[in-house]
Amino acid sequence: MAATDEFDAFYRDTARRLARYAYGLTGDPAETQDLVQEAYARAWQRWRRLSGYENQEAWLRLVVNRLAADRWRRLGVRRARPAPDPAPTYSPAPSENTVLLVGAMRTLPLIHRRALALHYLLDRSVAEIAAETGVSTGTVKSWLSRGRDGLAAALGPLEPALTREGRSDAR
Known about the structure:
Number of strands: 0
Strand content: under 5%
Largest sheet: none
Helix content: 55-70%
Radius of gyration: 19 Å
């Protein structure tokens, strides 16, 4: 198989997962696209060496992590940044739950967002996250716990759903 065909197959197999992961880190569709595009450009430049790696997708996630961290450093304090431009008209509007979750994720430290994105968006086990990040499973569990606590604090108390009659379903 030619290197271009091999890279094309790799791209088709991993692009959606990497975009989902990058979106979990950034919460910004435009930034997600930039990060993923840059990660694949770097992978293509190094494909001869990268194709021999045991887990090329983990290498891509590492590149996305570093690019995201670099952008954060350049932007300074992200929370002070004005809201991003509205999404292009051709994409459907995100649900209210997605907007709330992304807003809450933006309040978390990068390491907690990263652990949550790997675990919940890419279905990585605690052991896989620990191996990828080079920390103990206890540390990953701590990140996940603190990330969930941070999300709970940012999202606030959940209101019980109302029935048709206007009564609360909570009992």
